[in-house]
Design a protein that fits this description.
By secondary structure, the protein is α/β, with parallel strands linked by helices. It has a single domain, classed as Metallo-beta-lactamase, Chain A (4-Layer Sandwich). It is 25% helix and 23% strand. It has a six-stranded mixed sheet, sandwiched between helices. Strand 1 and strand 2 form a beta hairpin. The radius of gyration is 14 Å and the shape is globular.
């Protein structure tokens, strides 16, 4: 069974959600459910994946730190992705200890914040 199919089956079994799709993959799966997208453990979105992200209103992205990294978005790169998407809400995850939570959130554009343990989102 392919990695993409295995990921799809595991996601469906865990959530019961049928209407979703893998957007692009490498070592990880990046997915969209309705107007929600989950894009972590990456620092690049392939050109062919941008049309698949049209209409995303809420996104979870990684934003490891301010300095560039080889496998994760930096804070400024993640902000640029959110702005290109035109998403209304964004939550940055996979953040390192270099980013003090309250101070970093205060510096982020409106609609963007750092995620935290226990955060629950309602998605459409």
């Amino acid at each position: 069974m392919s990695e993409k199919r295995t990921t799809a089956r595991a996601f469906h079994d865990a959530t019961g959600v049928e209407d979703w799709r893998v957007l692009f993959s490498g070592a990880h799966a990046y997915f969209r459910v309705g107007s929600f997208a989950y894009l972590t453990d990456c620092n690049h979105i392939p050109d062919e994946s941008w049309p698949l992200l049209h209409g995303v209103r809420t996104v979870i992205l990684d934003a490891l730190r301010h300095r560039p990294h080889s496998t994760h978005f930096s804070v400024s790169e993640a902000i640029a992705v959110v702005q290109k998407l035109g998403a209304e809400r964004a939550y940055f995850t996979h953040i390192c200890h270099d980013l003090p939570h309250a101070e970093t959130c205060a510096q982020l554009p409106r609609g963007i914040e750092l995620a935290y343990d226990g955060l629950v989102l309602e998605i459409e």
